Amino acid sequence: MPKSPAPLYEQIRQLIVAALAAGEWRPGDALPSEAALAARFGASPGTVRRALDELAAEHLVDRRQGSGTFVSTHAAPREPFRFLRLVADDEARGFSRELLGCRRVRATAEVARTLGLRTAEPVIEVRRLLHRRDRPVVLDELWLPERQFEGLTTEVLEAHAGALYALFEARFGVHMVRAEEKLRAVAATPEAARLLGVEEGEPLLSVERLAFTYGDRPVELRRGLYHTASDHYRNDLN
Amino acid sequence: MPKSPAPLYEQIRQLIVAALAAGEWRPGDALPSEAALAARFGASPGTVRRALDELAAEHLVDRRQGSGTFVSTHAAPREPFRFLRLVADDEARGFSRELLGCRRVRATAEVARTLGLRTAEPVIEVRRLLHRRDRPVVLDELWLPERQFEGLTTEVLEAHAGALYALFEARFGVHMVRAEEKLRAVAATPEAARLLGVEEGEPLLSVERLAFTYGDRPVELRRGLYHTASDHYRNDLN
DNA sequence: CAGTGGTCTAGACCACCAT
DNA sequence: TGGTGGTCTAGACCACTGC
């Protein structure tokens, strides 16, 4: 408990996040203007501006001079793979996707704990490959609470052309805000080796990702195996 | 070339960075107050404040209410390993260091190109191990332009207790501002296996880091091999 | 207590976008 | 041309630090 109340711009920021979580404005929508929000929250325009600037820094909203402030969306043409840090050594871009499977399973103890579910609660498991220049480079396996992703099937996935996170927004109203990743080097299992076209035991980069929606609620656990022969995981430190 | 000149707060930000690069204020020093800087640059306090806020967001300065704005330093007690993202699975903290060697060599073509030097220009090569609970977890190899690090020897390294980057600040006036890392999974070479106490061919996380000082000038190339059995590389995405 | 950064307000003017 | 966000200013008041 803080001694003094949070500053007004922070309170306003939280109110806007709550409105986003409640779906008052959907990804891609315009928010009300600064002046309108100032009137709504009874604050001066400068204070609302500060709240919006913080939200823009967290990539929750997207500010465009002359046109307005918009809810961020993974469907934006600029960043179809905003959270994927794997880049080709020669800077080549883009992947093609191959769906391996989608089924309803019971959460293992670890998946349940990580996603904040009860053990054995139903989850949807998706497996897929990403190819670069027709060579497999990523084997992804991901788990989603069925409660929030009811109706996600192989057919739905096959029918959707854009990024996975864009599908989650459009069809299930779940927008991914941020993620935490844990990286390790591991040896390829026989199955991973077969799917990625490498030798068994060959080093692969293991990437475990926990993705969060508004309000820091975890909604996706993902395990990726990256073949880093002519690609690498890029990270900027500051 | 931008059509319109950069905004005033950005010009002021760049002037402050230039002053930092010139050593007008050293790491740990206090900058002049907002009001004093406003007078110096002929701008209003609000504009100077914005420039300082941006510098704080980049971790170039550290703002402390009631006492002032200070030049960031790697000697700060809070973050002795600010750029090291390797954390123990059980959240244990801290490493002990073991120096393996420090010698003057000629830059390979790749090292020279990356650091912006001429081929075969002299560089200082340092090799060391980091241990967690008396077990080796990181094998580091790094190269520094001799021009900027003249006098860096085994003795100097042995005599210094704090972080490497703190030594670079205190002794050579080089402050590391940001870095870019490229990660891959690789197989342990015989030498790496021996030093890290693992089997030859075992998967290791390879981390290649290029570190920059003020003005985006590259000054250190580092290759790390991380043993990720009970540690992992942590990354936050947003 | 003096000096510092942190918050909040109010308003002027500009640059950009859509129509 | 009207509405949007972006810049810049000016000043009041508060919270915190260190002497």
TrEMBL record, chains A, B:
The keyword Nucleus does not apply. It holds the Pfam family UTRA. Residues 6-74 form the HTH gntR-type domain. SMART domains: HTH_GNTR (SM00345), UTRA (SM00866). The keyword DNA-binding applies. Keywords: DNA-binding, Transcription, Transcription regulation. This is GntR family transcriptional regulator. It comes from Pelomonas caseinilytica.
